[in-house]
Amino acid sequence: MVPDFLSEIFKAAGLDMPVRNFLVDYRDGTGEFYHKPLQVICIRDYSDSEIINNIMQDVEMQNMTIDGITEIRGEHSLTELSAMSQDVKAAFEAGFRYLYLRDKKSH
Predict the structure, then answer these.
(1) pLDDT tens digits for range 70-106
(2) What's the predicted TM-score (pTM) here?
(3) Which residues constitute the domain of residue 99?
(4) What is the DSSP code string of 28-73?
C-alpha cells in the first residue's frame, strides 16, 4: 500500500521532516478568486513568518494577490486539502488557524 501522506513517506525513509498543510486564498488581476492547497516540507523548524513570506513571494511572482493563508492541523493528503478548500465544514472539523489575512482597507 502506498502511503497517502508525505510525512509517512519520510518516516518510512527514516527522515524526520514534518509536513505542514495550508489553504491559500488568492486572486488574480481581474479579481477572480482561487483556493490553493499547499504542503510545506519542514526540513527545519520554520517560523510562521518565514512560511507566510515564502508563500507570499511564490504567489506574488505569478501576479496574484493573497487574501488569506490558513493552516490546517493534522496530516492530510493534497486531495483532502483540495476537498477542504471547497468544504469549510471539513476544515473546521480538522482544526485550523489563520496565519495571514489581508487588510482590505489598505488595498
Answers:
(1) 999 988 888 889 889 888 888 888 899 999 999 876 5
(2) 0.80
(3) 17-27+35-70+87-107
(4) -TT--EEEEEEEEE-SS---HHHHHHHHHHHHHTTT-EEEEEEEEP
